[in-house]
Amino acid sequence: MIENSMSMKRSFSLFQFFIFSLFALAQTISITTDHTQLVLRVNDGGRLYQTYLGERLSEQTDLSQLNMPQAGLSSSCIKGLEAYPVMGTEDYYEPTLEIHHADGNPTSVLKYVEHSQQGNETAIVLRDELYPVEVTLYYKVFPEEDIIQQWTEIKQDEKGKVYLGRYASSILYFEAPNYFLTEFASDWAKEMQMQSQELQFGKKVVDSRLGTRANLMAQPSFELGLGEPVCENKGTVLMGTLGWMGNFRFTFEVDNQHVLRVVSGINHDAGTYLLRKGEAFRTADFYFTLSTNGVGEGSRRFQHWMMNHQLHKAKDDRMTLLNNWENTYFDFNEEKLVALFGEARDLGVDLFLLDDGWFGNKYPRKNDHAGLGDWEVTHDKLPNGIPYLVKKAKENGVSFGIWIEPEMVNPKSELAEKHPDWIIQLPSRETYYFRNQMVLDLCNPQVQDFVFGIVDGLMQENPDIKFMKWDCNSPITNIYSLYLKENQGNLYVDYVRGLYKVLDRVQAKYPDLYMMMCSGGGGRSDVKGLSYFTEFWCSDNTDPIERLFIQWGYSQFMPAKAMCAHVTEWNRRASIKFRVDVAFQGKLGFDIGLKGLSDDDRQYCREAIREYKRLKNVVWSPNLYRLVSPYEGQHCVVQRVNDSKTHSILFAYDIHPRYGERLLNTRLQGLDADAKYRVKEICLMSGRQSWLSCNDKVYTGDFLMKVGVKVTSGNDLVSHIIEITREE
Ligand code: DGJ
User: Fold this and answer.
1) Of all atoms in ligand 1, which is nearest to the CA of residue 469?
2) What's the CA gap between 452 and 461, in Å, rounded?
3) Which CATH code is given to the segment(s) 624-727?
């Protein structure tokens, strides 16, 4: 083994590296957006370091003044802030890469070779002198949105087996007096619970090891206050998110010199990856912005970036809908559904979405115990099949959408009987079931074909299907792939890659299909997923009070257009107006039996849908101003402004105000100070007048932003939607 690697060493010319090292001397690489700058520099030994990350410097000649950073273990062993530290040599902190060579050597030392900067993309090639390992660091900037995307490609050319123990996308270093992390803890019906803490010496890890439904317990995003806790409108804050539909990991490590390292990437736990000769391992994409005006500015940047560069069909419209899940659950038939199409028409929504329970014959899907995997319509439930439903929906003036959960299988299904080898399951242990189901092995190309075939089959038969809700209710359990055999460490990563292959095919063949990413609520919610899906289901929890918090959380990174918000029966103590007004902030839908509503309530829903359609482009504007936080009291006020500042919408909610609470004016943001705006409450229950003192008055933008208006009250569960229109 050692002999083998020695000859490789010789063939990998030392002379070449001598030349590289000379060339590398004093190389400075600057990566800039409109307001942010990341500077990397090659030291005399040919190693690459971060020398600066902060506000963009005005004088580029100042870059030469940046010192090589002096952080690390102790003064005798300073190695600095290496751009991509590898485990096993002189850096004892959290590394980005761990590589085990075929001869058993567990180290690599990466040295600068060359870099290129073309357009908005920078690629920096690093290489090991002893082993044929090449690592390319990629940085893509989105200058106007002030977002930087980072990923890494790891290539190896050894003959034997080389394993990657870690494969992070990025490491960033910070030196601030103190560090405050906001994370988004989650669970079913409890998504995006924002929690903050000061980071002390040592490590804090936020990660997921669930495989599928990966964000069930933690979301792949964070906010980091540098020098002060995260604030809405002030302070320096790093906001980061990982684009990866699987296990992720963020490690925040404060070292003994109080330098903070932020390592982001795919979670390497249970994922020691066999990298074959000649193969390239591309890490996930990490995206970050560094705002000096708090998370409000950071959120607007992310929402603009999502709308301009990431969200699937971002520029296209979205459909309001009526879903039957909470109305019928599995208990429906053709007649019931056709009646619901009529309700959808009556309501004025664009689409009817048929949820779980329409398939399976040998094992009909009467509940969540059977049928998953058998994607044939249940004949005795829906004798005329899906084509009849699509036709009937059309006759009622609504489009048709359908639920699928294509990655999963119930053991009680024909699919499980026919293809046990397609299921991720341990051959020799008792099986653990999550929601009575198991995950299909998307590492296997045959399974990829099968999963693609589910969408394809439905679309071939029903080209008029406009929408699919792609659910994913189980994490990966019983982790063993028959297809991967002895390379089980590749499972989590190859699964996600298999899923991407399927979604790529779906997107290429059906570019007009709208798709909701759903995972037992918000168990999938990452920005890569949203490059395939047009929207996502934020949570099964549609209690409007809870939703104020959940939507507040998701709005840190996600645009309103992508956030599905449905009006349901959760928390009937809240009026229909309150429930609709909360859902109005996102991508509006209904999942409720209309027959159970009073005439006034039904009328309110119709009216709200009309107003929503009129105003949706303002509602979906990325210019979001979170004015009053539900985390700080008993009210929540959120504002959207269109790009030209001619139109704005204010959403105001009172939750459970305290007795005698002092009510302050809410100061607006983002308007044109010199312009005049009419303030008008819309979406009133029939026969009601607005009692807001600002209603139907005209103010300057200056006044609205400096003095503000009173839109909160001392009443329980009251809401207002207020339209603000620039006067000609
Ligand atoms: C979980 C989803 O979050 C629900 O909306 C619904 O589609 C069910 N799955 C169906 O099983």
Assistant:
1) 7
2) 14
3) 2.60.40.1180
Sign, CA dihedral 110-115-118-120, equals positive
The domain locations on the chain are: 4-310, 321-483+510-620, 624-727
Closest CA to 50 of 84, 95, 89, 96: 84
Q: What is the mean pLDDT of the chain?
A: 94
Q: What does the pLDDT read at residue 26?
A: 58
Please, what's the largest Cα pairwise distance for the chain? 89
Q: Is 191 in the pocket of ligand 1 (CB under 6 A)?
A: no
- Calculate mean pLDDT across residues 674-685: 98
The 10s digit of each residue's pLDDT in 56-103 is 999 988 898 887 665 444 433 345 699 999 998 888 899 999 999 999
**Is residue 359 within 6 Å of ligand 1 at its C-beta?**
no
pLDDT tens per residue, range 464-486: 999 999 999 999 999 999 999 99
Closest atom of ligand 1 to 368 CA is 11
Mutate which of 331, 356, 405 for ligand 1? The one with the most ligand atoms within 8 Å of its CB, which is 356
Pick one of 3.40.30.10, 3.40.50.1370, 3.20.20.70, 3.30.420.10 as the CATH number of 321-483+510-620: 3.20.20.70
For 206-263, what is each residue's pLDDT tens digit? Answer: 999 999 999 999 999 999 999 999 999 999 999 999 999 999 999 999 998 899 999 9
Q: Which ligand 1 atom sits nearest the alpha carbon of residue 540?
A: 3
Counting atoms of ligand 1 from 1, which one is nearest the CA of 518? 3
Atom of ligand 1 nearest to the CA of 537: 3
List alpha helices for 251-333, DSSP H: 294-305, 325-328
How far is the CA of 411 from the CAs of 356, 368, 419, 424, in angstroms?
17, 11, 11, 12
Q: What is the pLDDT of residue 66?
A: 87
Pairing of strands 179-185, 221-226: antiparallel
The CA 454 to ligand 1 mean position distance, Å, reads 18
Q: Is the CB of 540 under 6 A from ligand 1?
A: yes
State if residue 581 touches ligand 1 by the CB under 6 angstroms criterion.
Answer: no
343 lines ligand 1 (CB under 6 A): no
- What is the pLDDT at residue 80? 67
Give pLDDT tens digits for 5-15.
444 444 445 45
Are the beta carbons of 310 and 527 closer than 8 angstroms? yes
403 lines ligand 1 (CB under 6 A): yes
Best of 540, 541, 566, 568 for a ligand 1 pocket test (most atoms within 8 Å of beta carbon): 540
